[in-house]
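[step 3/7] inverse_fold.run input=structure_tokens len=112
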């Protein structure tokens, strides 16, 4: 069993920045960040693979950055220039040994 723990999140104003962290109990291969808001389908925010290549949704491209520190089994989602429409629960999904594991989710609220 792999444990995935998220941290970060909170209430910020439009234009602010936040960094989310995702720590796994074992080495990760692919890490994906999703977000979900009530009434909207779950959205893939972006992903990072073992070699560091990243892919982003058009809605966050240029504002969000995914990175990883494999020495710490940790991935990060740096969110800049936050907008009210970024409000959602953010979920980390990691692939370990070919299986998917989820973090507990963290709420991000962007509001003035």
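[step 3/7] decode complete -> sequence:
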């Amino acid at each position: 069993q792999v444990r995935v723990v998220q941290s970060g999140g909170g209430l910020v104003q439009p234009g602010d920045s936040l960094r989310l962290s995702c720590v796994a109990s074992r080495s990760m291969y692919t890490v994906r960040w999703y977000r979900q808001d009530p009434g909207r389908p779950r959205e893939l925010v972006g992903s990072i693979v073992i070699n560091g290549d990243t892919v982003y949704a058009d809605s966050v491209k240029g504002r969000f950055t995914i990175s990883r520190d494999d020495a710490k089994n940790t991935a990060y989602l740096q969110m800049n220039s936050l907008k009210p429409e970024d409000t959602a629960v953010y979920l980390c999904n990691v692939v370990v040994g070919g299986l998917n594991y989820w973090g507990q989710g963290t709420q991000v609220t962007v509001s003035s």
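[step 4/7] annotate
The chain has a mean pLDDT of 96.
The two ends are 40 Å apart (CA to CA).
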